[in-house]
Structures are given as structure tokens and as C-alpha cells.
């Protein structure tokens, strides 16, 4: 009996403990559920609050951006994203789609004068985060026309290279924003390499290049072309702002010198100063040039022009098997080449070149020397000297005979020299045995018999050379050369072509004063009779008021107008 009661009591106690445990577990579950519900409610409220803050920030940024656009555009709001495309063109004027013209016209931008735009790269960013564009990733430009396809903007190489420096994105996206720029008053530029300051009147060359530009921005690079040469100048400083307009304004330009000469100077078009009377040593590789310049002052120029002195360019080379050529020109031809020069020497080994100015008034000035590596790597020593002509002998005059010809002299039948009649038989016997006369038409040179086999004539031009010089002569003078304009000629004809008829030759325009490419023949026959080139014919068609009567007259007809109308010489 007691056993059954005890067993029933234990069962009751166990059931009570289980009920208490279940109640406790239920209370824990309810507490955890309430805590999770509260956490979720707090997280939802925080998310809603963050969204409201993001929306407020986005609205504030949009409003601030609109205010900036309105401020930069002087009341005109134009900001769009376009795909950037390239097109070949000078300067910094881009092409926009026709829809942009309509929008700008509706905004009244056409009434405010030239239109300028700020271009910046668009990078991938987190949605809702503000996108900042560095100054180095933005540039300014003008607009050429509104003919680009919708959704795209076409950029010139200048704008593209300044905006995408070292980048080549698969789909380049840019933001184009209308801005109002002040007129520039000052600009400081710095050449990327050396040699730009060697160009004659390099400021005028820079001014000509900037005529294709509407704007300038700090840290941009401006490319200046001079013939086939290209120079890059970095914009260091601008006033009165970091981006300015250069249209219809006078800008004071300061050109800063480069930091230092680059190590690989052989591959650059650089003029090394050469003092008269001093020797300059150097090394030139095959197929490359080393350039030098020297100055002939007016005093020395007068002596050279009167032929009482001459200019001697001397180069001495080592005997290692290399060979050089010398090409010399007078500025404005800065860098003489194989087929653009005024004087040249192609002799093998060391050589002396005497410069004879074709015009007596052009003796003084700056001259350029190009040392060309014809074969192998050659060490050389270069010097320039102004040497007086001895005994009153002038350049081109034959020296007077030291003694008069005896009246009883006779002409040797072999060497054609005057020989005394008393020794003529003995001389002729010796001369016939040891000397031989070159029978080539127009030559007649008397040679030692052992030297006769080395004396040869060119089959094309008939000039006489030693056998070892013939290969170089054929390669230099008779190997066909192709001009950049497409004409193929031999050397002498190429020199004449590139100095007088090549459309790519550089000239100083008589109307604008710039160094420009001449172009072809002018369309106007009257301009051809006046020996004008295509550029001068077009440039001279601009009108200017006559100083005497105020009538607008074309520049190329101004001289005729002054003589015919005002009877002035």
C-alpha cells in the first residue's frame, strides 16, 4: 500500500515539473518572438529613415547641381550624358547631336555669343553616392556643329587625349555641361621636350596653332605642328580662371623652358649650339640625325657676301668603318634632311663643306647642320670656321699662274700640259709609259695607270668617282625617294621639288606672317602669275580697309589698288 502511494506521488511530482518546464519554455519562446519582432520593427524603421535621408540628400544634391549649372551657364541649364566618339579635326571644337541645338536655342544660349562646354568623364559609382570628377578628368571646349548622331558627342584628338589620358574605355561616357568662360588675359605654357624654342618665331607658330582653339584649360596639353614635327606644350597657368576663352581676345603668353634635356637626345629634333672655331664631338647611329646650329653675325656676313671670307664646315670621322653625310640649311629651314637642305657633302670619311650663299643678303643669320649617319655608328668631331681668303683670291676665282708660259713651250700629246720644248721628248716618253687619260666624254683627267682602274663614271649623271664611292653615290643621288605628298623622285629633283613645288613645304605667308604649308597651285590664274601659293591666294582674299580711302580691298590686291587709285608707288 505504501509502495503504491509513493509511486503515485512521484508520478505527480514529475508531471508538475514537466508542466513547470513547459510553461517556462513557452515564456522564453514568447519573449524571443517579441524581441525579434521589435528588432525587425526597428530595422524597418531605420531602413525607411535611411531612404528618406538618401532621398533628401539626392534632392539637395540635384538642387545644388542645378544651381551650379545655372551659375556656370549664366542662367542656362544644359547638362547631358553622351557616348564619346573620335573624329579627325584640328583644335578643340566638338560635334553635338541636333537635339542639343534645339535645347540650347530654347534656353537662349545662341544669343549669348560663342558656346563653351565643360567635359568630364563618367565613372561607375554606387547608386545614390555622389560622383566627384577631378580637375585632371575634365576639360573645356567649343562646338563646331550639331551633326553628331543622337546620344553621342564627337571629340577632336586634342579634346580626347586631354580627357582620356592613358584610358581607352570600351564605352566612354562623358558629361557635357554648358559653361560661361571669361576671356583669357595670360597663359603660361611649358614644352614637354626640348627643341620648340629653336623654331624660328616659335611664338607665331604657337599663335597659329591656337587659332583653331576656342578654350584653354590648366593641365591640358596643346599640340603644335611644324611641318612633319610635332611639339606638346602643357598649360601651367591661366588668368583670370583655370579655364578661359581665347576667342577675340589678346592673351599674354609666357613660354617656360623645359626642365632638362632628355637622355635620348639622339632621337629628338634638338639644335645643339655650336660656337665658331670650337670643336664639338659626337656619335651618330646609322639612319639618324644629330643637329647643331651656329650664328653668323652681320659683320662676318658682309665679309662672306663680298667673298673675302668663307664659311667652312669641317667634320672628321674615325676609321672604324662608319660614314656620315652633312646637310646644312639657313633658318627658317630649321632641320635639314636628305632632300630638304641648301648645302650638302657626301664624300666618304672626313670632309670640308664650304658654304656659298646664293643671295648675298642672306649671309648673316642662324644656320643648322644635320650630321646624318650613313653607315654604322660613327664618332666624329664637328667644327665651323670663318676663314679669310688668302692672297686676295675670292671664292670661285682661279688662282693666278705663278709664272708665265714660256714662248717655246709645247703641249704634251698625252697629258695636255705645257712642257718646255727642250724636254718634251723625254717627258712624253715618261708620260705615255706611266700616265693614261680618261676617255669618258667631258672628263679628260690624267691618271696614273695603277689608279686608272679605280677611276669610274656614273652611268646616269656621268660624274667621276673612285670605285669605293660609287655605291654610296648611287644610293644617295639615284635611289628613288618618296615625298610625303606622294611624288617619287631622285635626290636632286626631290630637293628642287620640296623647295619650290611641294604642297607640304613650309613658307612664311606674306599676308598673315605665319609659317604654314604652301598648298598646291592657286585656282586663280592671276595669283599663279604673281607666284602665289594656294595658302597665300586664300589668305590674301581677306579684305582690309585702305589706309587712304577706307575702301575694303583684298590684301593681295592692295598694292595694285594703292598704285592705280592713289598713284602711290
What would you note in describing this structure?
This protein folds into five domains: 1-68; 79-123 and 136-179, Ubiquitin fusion degradation protein UFD1, N-terminal domain (Barwin-like endoglucanases, Beta Barrel); 186-255, Roll (Vcp-like ATPase, Chain A, domain 2), CATH 3.10.330; 271-388, Jelly Rolls, CATH 2.60.120.380; 506-566, no CATH class. The radius of gyration is 42 Å and the shape is elongated. The chain is an alpha+beta fold and 569 residues long. Strand 32 and strand 33 form a beta hairpin. 28% of the residues lie in helices and 29% in strands. It is built from twelve helices and 33 strands. The longest helix has 71 residues, at 2-72. The termini are far apart. Mean pLDDT is 83; it is low at 125-133, 262-267 and 392-404. A six-stranded mixed beta sheet has the order 2-4-3-6-1-5. Strands 13-15-20-17-18 form a five-stranded mixed beta sheet. Strands 9-10-7-12 form a four-stranded mixed beta sheet. Residues 1-58 are annotated as: Disordered. One of its GO terms (molecular function) is polyubiquitin modification-dependent protein binding. It comes from Oryza nivara. Belongs to the UFD1 family. One of its GO terms (biological process) is ERAD pathway.
Provide a compact summary of the structure:
By secondary structure, the chain is of the alpha+beta class. 22% of the residues are buried. The chain is built from twelve helices and 33 strands.
Amino acid at each position: 500500500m505504501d509502495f503504491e502511494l509513493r509511486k503515485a506521488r512521484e508520478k505527480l511530482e514529475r508531471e508538475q515539473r514537466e508542466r513547470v518546464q513547459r510553461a517556462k519554455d513557452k515564456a522564453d519562446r514568447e519573449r524571443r518572438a517579441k524581441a525579434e519582432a521589435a528588432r525587425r520593427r526597428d530595422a524597418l524603421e531605420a531602413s525607411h529613415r535611411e531612404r528618406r535621408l538618401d532621398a533628401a540628400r539626392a534632392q539637395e544634391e540635384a538642387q545644388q547641381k542645378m544651381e551650379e549649372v545655372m551659375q556656370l551657364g549664366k542662367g542656362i541649364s544644359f547638362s547631358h550624358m553622351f557616348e564619346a566618339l573620335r573624329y579627325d579635326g584640328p583644335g578643340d571644337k566638338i560635334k553635338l547631336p541636333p537635339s542639343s541645338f534645339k535645347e540650347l536655342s530654347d534656353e537662349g544660349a545662341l544669343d549669348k555669343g560663342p558656346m563653351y562646354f565643360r567635359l568630364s568623364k563618367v565613372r561607375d559609382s554606387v547608386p545614390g553616392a555622389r560622383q566627384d570628377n577631378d580637375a585632371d578628368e575634365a576639360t573645356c571646349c567649343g562646338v563646331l556643329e550639331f551633326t553628331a548622331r543622337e546620344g553621342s558627342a564627337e571629340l577632336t584628338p586634342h579634346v580626347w587625349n586631354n580627357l582620356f589620358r592613358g584610358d581607352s574605355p570600351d564605352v566612354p561616357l562623358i558629361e557635357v555641361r554648358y559653361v560661361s568662360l571669361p576671356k583669357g588675359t595670360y597663359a603660361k605654357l611649358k614644352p614637354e621636350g626640348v627643341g620648340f624654342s629653336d623654331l624660328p618665331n616659335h611664338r607665331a607658330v604657337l599663335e597659329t596653332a591656337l587659332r583653331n582653339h576656342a578654350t584653354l584649360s590648366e593641365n591640358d596639353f596643346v599640340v603644335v605642328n611644324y611641318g612633319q614635327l610635332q611639339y606638346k606644350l602643357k598649360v601651367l597657368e591661366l588668368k583670370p580662371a583655370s579655364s578661359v576663352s581665347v576667342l577675340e581676345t589678346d592673351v599674354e603668353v609666357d613660354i617656360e623652358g623645359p626642365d632638362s634635356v632628355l637622355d635620348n637626345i639622339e632621337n629628338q629634333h634638338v639644335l645643339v649650339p655650336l660656337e665658331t672655331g670650337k670643336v664639338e664631338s659626337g656619335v651618330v647611329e646609322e639612319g639618324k640625325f644629330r643637329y647643331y646650329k651656329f650664328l653668323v653675325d652681320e659683320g662676318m656676313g658682309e665679309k662672306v657676301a663680298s667673298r673675302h671670307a668663307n664659311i667652312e664646315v669641317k667634320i672628321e670621322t674615325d676609321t672604324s668603318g662608319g660614314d656620315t653625310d652633312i646637310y646644312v640649311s639657313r633658318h627658317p629651314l630649321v632641320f635639314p634632311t636628305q632632300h630638304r637642305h641648301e648645302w650638302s657633302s657626301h664624300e666618304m670619311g672626313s670632309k670640308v663643306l664650304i658654304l656659298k650663299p646664293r643671295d648675298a643678303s642672306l649671309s648673316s643669320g642662324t644656320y643648322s647642320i644635320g650630321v646624318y649617319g650613313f653607315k654604322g655608328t660613327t664618332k666624329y668631331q664637328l667644327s665651323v670656321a670663318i676663314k679669310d681668303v688668302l692672297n686676295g683670291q675670292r671664292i670661285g676665282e682661279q688662282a693666278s699662274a705663278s709664272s708665265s708660259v714660256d714662248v717655246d713651250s709645247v703641249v704634251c700629246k698625252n697629258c695636255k700640259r705645257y712642257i718646255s720644248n727642250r724636254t718634251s721628248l723625254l717627258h712624253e716618253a715618261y708620260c705615255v709609259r706611266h700616265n693614261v687619260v680618261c676617255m669618258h666624254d667631258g672628263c679628260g683627267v690624267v691618271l696614273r695607270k695603277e689608279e686608272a682602274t679605280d677611276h669610274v663614271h656614273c652611268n646616269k649623271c656621268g660624274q667621276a668617282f673612285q670605285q669605293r664611292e660609287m655605291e654610296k653615290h648611287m644610293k644617295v643621288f639615284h635611289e628613288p625617294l618618296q615625298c610625303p605628298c606622294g611624288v617619287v623622285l631622285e635626290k636632286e629633283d626631290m630637293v628642287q621639288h620640296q623647295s619650290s613645288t611641294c604642297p607640304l613645304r613650309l613658307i612664311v605667308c606674306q599676308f598673315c606672317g605665319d609659317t604654314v604649308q604652301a598648298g598646291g597651285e592657286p585656282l586663280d590664274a592671276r595669283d599663279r602669275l604673281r607666284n602665289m601659293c594656294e595658302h597665300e591666294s586664300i589668305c590674301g582674299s581677306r579684305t582690309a580697309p585702305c589706309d587712304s580711302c577706307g575702301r575694303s580691298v583684298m590684301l593681295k590686291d592692295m598694292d595694285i589698288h594703292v598704285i592705280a587709285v592713289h598713284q602711290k608707288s
